[in-house]
Amino acid sequence: MASSLLELRSLQKAYGAIRVTDNVNLSVRPGELHAIIGPNGAGKTTLIHQISGILSPDSGQILFDGEDVTHLPMHQRVRRGLARSFQITSILPAFSALENVALAVQARSGSSFRFFGKVAQESSLNEAAMEYLNVVGLGPRARVMAGLLSHGEKRQLELAVGLATQPKLLLLDEPLAGTGHEESLRVIETLKQLKNRITIMLIEHDMDAVFSLADRVSVLVYGRVIATDTPEGIRANEEVRAAYLGEEEIA
Ligand SMILES: Nc1ncnc2c1ncn2[C@@H]1O[C@H](COP(=O)(O)OP(=O)(O)OP(=O)(O)O)[C@@H](O)[C@H]1O
To answer: Which among 181, 95, 186 is positioned nearest to 142, based on CA atoms?
Structure first.
């Protein structure tokens, strides 16, 4: 396998005179959880939009699994295994948690949606779906309508659906946003389970979560990657600490 699952080469994106992505070089290794952090407006969302295919870079290259995907539309990137959480996780509120995951298993296995109505009876789909629900800690809530789950449980369900589609790389854009304390602990626990199974690129403002989950962290400031290192290395990095003065706490 290539040493990088995802590689960004000299990526550039500007809005007028503002360079939002400024010569970004970044590599996500197979199996790692790579977090992207940075102060507000640093360009994290713009970067993830270019990786998923919502935005085109002005120049530079995006290589995924050894292939240049820079100019591929979003759906073709998804088909190659580059998935962003919200793209793969449109939860159906009137279906149970189990059914939501079973549909993702079915979609992945290439079965036709003609059998949509029979999904609940498909024991093999349900068994696989149940396993994914257990991974994210939602096993006991399998039969509950997705629309009735709490906000945090919906995030967990999204992650189970994401896992069921078996992408090679999961892009997670602030999975803890809007969760309360208890819920965020549960989602962090879920991410810990997930990270053993899949390569993840995570954008997250919650520094406790980032530092407890990430194998490596890249710090974006004014569109530039100023450091890529282990969490310990990032904590000790003077330039990173300076960039964060007055912003989020990183130690
Ligand atoms: N469509 C656009 N047109 C002009 N400027 C934009 C556009 N989208 C984003 N920007 C600017 O680009 C910069 C980076 O924005 P971006 O949303 O990528 O940052 P971010 O790091 O995700 O911020 P946050 O942490 O607050 O979500 C900001 O200055 C923003 O105002």
So the answer is: 95
What is the whole-number distance in angstroms between the Cα of residue 50 and the centre of ligand 1?
A: 13
Closest ligand 1 atom to the C-alpha of 49? Answer: 18
pLDDT, one tens digit per residue, over 150-188 is 888 888 898 888 888 889 999 998 888 888 888 888 889
**Alpha-carbon torsion angle 37, 30, 194, 9, nearest 10:** 30
The domain locations on the chain are 1-81+168-251, 91-166
Q: Which CATH number fits domain 1-81+168-251: 3.20.20.140, 1.10.530.10, 3.40.50.720, 3.40.50.300?
A: 3.40.50.300
45 CB within 6 A, ligand 1: yes
Q: In this model, does residue 122 exceed pLDDT 70?
A: no
User: Ligand 1 pocket, 40 CB below 6 A?
Assistant: yes
Q: Which atom in ligand 1 lies closest to the alpha carbon of residue 16?
A: 4
Can you read off the two tokens belonging to residue 189?
């626990």
For residue 2, count other CB atoms closer than 10 A to its CB.
14
State the complex-level ipTM: 0.95
| pTM for this predicted structure | 0.86
**For a pocket test of ligand 1, which of 12, 13, 20 has the largest count of ligand atoms closer than 8 A to its C-beta?**
20
Distance 133 CA to ligand 1 centre (A): 34
- Among residues 217, 215, 212, the alpha carbon closest in space to that of 234 is found at 217
Nearest CA to ligand 1 atom 8: 46
Q: Is the CB of 44 under 6 A from ligand 1?
A: yes
Q: Tell me 145's DSSP state.
A: B
Q: Mean pLDDT across the stretch 22-45?
A: 96
